[in-house]
């Protein structure tokens, strides 16, 4: 989940002025290690969300207008699952249906929740996040 937060924060920060930022500048704004920034930004670059520029004023730049990047694309870029179970209760060999099938039920439930969440995230853009943050700052 932290990869998503890093990518979201970085993309909103990059979108706000459209200028390139080094991993150190992003690291300072995100309050995290520049190595983590570079790892996440490489995933974003691979998925067309950011571009890189070499040289003195080089760094990362937003790859598209913030109106054209939605939060689902960010999740897909960092390749994580919103909700998953790495452990299942019960025993599939049990004669008790609750013991045998609870794991399968939870997997289906989490799959449904992820699908619904992705449909919501698809509707929210970087520009929307930026606007919401500006409103929060105005109401400070």
Taken from the alpha-carbon principal axes, the silhouette is elongated
Q: Roughly how many Å apart are the termini? A: 27 Å
> Strand order, biggest sheet?
1-2
Q: Enumerate how many helices there are, as a single number.
A: 6
Number of strands: 2
Strand content: 5-15%
Number of domains: 1
The CATH topology is given as: Arc Repressor Mutant, subunit A
Q: CATH first level: which class?
A: Mainly Alpha
Let me know the average pLDDT: 92
Itemize the secondary structure elements and their pairings.
Blueprint (H helix, E strand, L loop, with lengths): L1 H16 L5 H8 L3 H13 L3 E4 L5 E4 L8 H8 L18 H25 L4 H13 L2
Antiparallel strand pairs: 1-2
Structure description:
The protein is mainly alpha-helical and 140 residues long. It has a single domain (2-138), classed as Arc Repressor Mutant, subunit A, CATH 1.10.10.10. Helix content is 59%, strand content 6%. The protein contains 6 helices and 2 strands; from the N terminus they run H-H-H-E-E-H-H-H. It has helices at 2-17, 23-30, 34-46, 71-78, 97-121, 126-138, and strands at residues 50-53, 59-62. The protein has a two-stranded antiparallel ribbon with strand order 1-2. Helix 1 (2-17) crosses helix 4 (71-78). The protein is elongated and about 65 Å long. The two termini are 27 Å apart.
Concise summary:
The chain has 140 residues and is mainly alpha-helical. It has helices at residues 2-17, 23-30, 34-46, 71-78, 97-121, 126-138, and strands at 50-53, 59-62.
